[in-house]
Amino acid sequence: MWLRRREGSWELKHPPQRGARGLYGASTQYMELTSEDDIISRVSEELGVPRPHNIESFGLNEFASFVTRRRRFQLPLVENSNTKVVVDLDEADFGFAVGEVEVLVKTQEEVENALQKVEEICRQLGVYRETPVQGKVSTFLQMNRADHYRQLLEAHVI
Question: Please, which residues have CB within 8 angstroms of residue 147's CB and are 6 or more apart in sequence?
Fold first, then answer.
């Protein structure tokens, strides 16, 4: 679960079910909450604490801060499909770059087809992998907060 501030707004990324890792082969699946009210409810539930009035009242401490330059491309829609396919190319200010193929869906029933579409597109682009690529936050922690990174590894969070 990642709580972050992006362009001045709060976002919470979390696996689709409590305790799940959201990992499917080389692909990951996350829910993204952007409503502060929804974020407060989910974090309160996860931490097992009463629901505060705002996110800052949780008293959480920032453990990573970096700037990412993103180039985003939308692939043309496939015939007879309402699927939106996005390719993000990210360069973080700490020297890490990563690409991501993303298919956004609204229901759990659409996930399997989305995962297949991501795999198909990655194969067409010649960037298909059997195992996931380490993400920006994990890489930042490994490079800049080794103790924090080690604790997350030991706790099987990453």
Answer: none
